[in-house]
Design goal:
Layout: H1 4-25, E1 27-28, H2 30-40, H3 46-62, E2 68-77, E3 101-114, H4 118-142, H5 144-184, H6 190-225, E4 234-235, H7 250-272, E5 276-287, E6 298-308, H8 317-382, H9 388-423
Parallel strand pairs: 1-4
Antiparallel strand pairs: 2-3, 3-5, 5-6
C-alpha cells in the first residue's frame, strides 16, 4: 500500500534538492522551470482541497452501510375512534373507550440488507468527480508551460544578443586601434577615429539596454517560479528534442473521465429504480400502543424486514437516459473541437519549424560570406584602401547576419518546445 507520508516526504526532499542544486550551481533548466512554476502556482493548493473533499464525500457515502437511527414523535386528535357495540347488553361486560387524543414517541433502527448497489455507486461517483476536478486544475496549470517557454527563451535570446554585441565591440575596438595608428602617423583624420569611437559607444549602450531587458525578464521568470534569480543566473540552453509521439494533453484525459462519469450516472439511474430491502426494529411508547383495547400508555416494539420499491423513477427514466446520451454527445463535440483547434496550431507550428530550418541553412552561408568581406575590409582599412565608414558598413553587415542566425536559432528551439507543449509531451515535468 502506498504510504502518503512517504510520498509527501519524497516530494519535499525532491523540492529541497532542486532548490539547493539551483542555489549552488546557479544554472536553471527549462524542465526545472516547468516544475517550479507548477509548484509555485497558487492553484496547486486546489489539489489538496479536492483530495479532502473526496475523502469526506466517500466517508459519508460509506456510512450508508451503517445502521440508520431515527427518533419520531407525534400527538394527534381524531374526529372518531373505534367503538365496540353489541346488539344485546351483557351484564358485567364493559368495553373500554379509546381516546380521540393519541400520542406516540418511538425510535427506529434500520440496517440495509440490499440497496441495489446505491452506496457502492455513490462512492464510485465521488471518486470519479474528484478525478475530473483534479484534471480541470491540471488543464489550467498546464497552461503555465506556454508562459515559461516565452520568458525562458526570451532570456536565451537576450543572452545570445549580448554575446554577439560583445563580438561586435571587439571588431570596432580593432578598427579603432588600426585607425588610431594612422592618426598618430598623420595619415588619417581624427574624425575617422571619432566615427569608430561613436559606434563603440553605441555598442556599449546596446549592451546596457540588453542587460536591462534581461534583468526584467529574469525578474518575471523568478516571479513565475517563486525564486529570487540573481543577475548571474545562467539559463541552460535546452537540447533539441524529438517531436515524435501522439497528443497527450490533460484535456484529452479530462474528456475520457467525463465520459466515464456519464457511465456512472447511468448506473445511478438504474440503482434509483431498484428495490431496497432492510431490517428494522422500532420501539416506542404511546397511547394507544399495539393493543388498541388498552387506552393507557404502554411501551411497544415492532421488528421485521421491510421492502421498499419506488416506481416513480420509471416515469422519468427515458428522459434521464436521453439527457445522459445528449451530454455524451456534447463531450464528443467538445473533444472534436479541441483536437481540431490543436491540430491547426500544430500545422502552423510545424510550418514555422520548416521555415526556420531553411533560414538557418542560408544564415550560415550569409555569415561565412559576410565574415570574409569583413576580414578583407579590415585589411583594406589597415592599408588605407577604404575609410572607416566602409569598414563599419561591413562590420555591421556581419553583425546583422549573426543576429539573424541567433534570432532564427532561438526561434527554432522555442518553436520546438512550443510543439512539445501543444502535443503534451512535457506533461510529466
Amino acid at each position: 500500500m502506498i504510504n502518503p507520508f512517504r510520498i509527501c516526504l519524497f516530494i519535499l526532499l525532491s523540492r529541497l534538492t532542486i532548490v539547493a542544486a539551483f542555489a549552488q550551481d546557479k544554472v536553471l533548466t527549462i524542465n526545472d522551470s516547468y516544475m517550479l512554476a507548477r509548484k509555485n502556482y497558487p492553484l496547486i493548493k486546489q489539489y489538496e482541497l479536492i483530495r479532502k473533499t473526496e475523502n469526506f464525500s466517500v466517508e459519508n457515502a460509506a456510512k450508508g452501510y451503517l445502521p440508520q437511527i431515527s427518533v419520531l414523535g407525534q400527538a394527534t386528535y381524531q374526529s372518531a375512534v373505534t367503538e365496540f357495540k353489541l346488539p344485546i347488553a351483557i351484564p358485567g361486560a364493559e368495553f373500554p373507550s379509546i381516546s380521540k387524543d393519541q400520542y406516540k414517541v418511538y425510535a427506529e433502527v434500520s440496517q440495509t440488507i440490499y440497496d441495489g448497489g446505491a452506496v457502492r455507486t455513490q462512492i464510485e461517483s465521488h471518486k470519479q468527480n474528484a478525478i475530473m476536478e483534479t484534471l480541470k486544475v491540471e488543464v489550467e496549470i498546464y497552461k503555465l508551460n506556454e508562459r515559461v517557454n516565452q520568458i525562458f527563451f526570451g532570456i536565451l535570446m537576450l543572452d545570445e544578443q549580448l554575446k554577439q554585441n560583445a563580438l561586435l565591440k571587439k571588431d570596432i575596438e580593432l578598427g579603432v586601434k588600426k585607425i588610431q595608428a594612422f592618426i598618430d602617423n598623420g595619415t588619417a583624420f581624427k574624425s575617422n577615429g571619432n566615427t569608430l569611437k561613436a559606434e563603440l559607444l553605441k555598442t556599449e549602450q546596446r549592451a546596457t539596454e540588453l542587460a536591462s531587458n534581461r534583468k526584467a525578464y529574469l525578474d518575471m521568470l523568478g516571479l513565475l517560479i517563486g525564486q529570487d534569480l540573481a543577475g548571474s543566473t545562467v539559463l541552460a540552453k535546452p537540447e533539441t528534442v524529438s517531436l515524435e509521439g501522439d497528443m497527450s494533453r490533460p484535456e484529452l484525459r479530462l474528456f475520457d473521465y467525463q465520459r466515464q462519469n456519464l457511465d456512472i450516472q447511468d448506473k445511478l439511474l438504474k440503482v434509483k429504480n431498484r428495490p431496497k430491502l432492510n431490517f428494522f426494529f422500532q420501539g416506542g411508547y404511546g397511547r394507544p400502543a399495539l393493543n388498541i383495547l388498552n387506552n393507557g400508555f404502554d411501551p411497544y416494539y415492532i421488528t421485521g424486514i421491510r421492502l421498499n420499491w419506488s416506481l416513480s423513477g420509471l416515469y422519468t427514466a427515458k428522459n434521464d437516459r436521453a439527457l445522459i446520451a445528449n451530454n455524451r454527445e456534447s463531450i464528443q463535440v467538445q473533444q472534436a473541437v479541441f483536437v481540431y483547434n490543436t491540430n491547426l496550431s500544430l500545422k502552423q507550428q510545424n510550418a514555422d519549424l520548416i521555415k526556420l530550418e531553411k533560414l538557418l541553412e542560408s544564415d550560415n552561408e550569409i555569415i561565412a560570406l559576410r565574415e570574409s568581406v569583413k576580414t578583407t575590409a579590415a585589411a583594406q582599412l589597415e592599408n588605407g584602401v577604404i575609410n572607416t565608414n566602409d569598414y563599419l558598413r561591413e562590420v555591421n553587415a556581419e553583425d546583422q547576419a549573426r543576429l539573424s542566425r541567433i534570432l532564427h536559432e532561438i526561434q527554432l528551439l522555442m518553436s520546438t518546445y512550443n510543439v512539445r507543449t501543444t502535443l503534451g509531451q512535457n506533461i510529466d515535468q
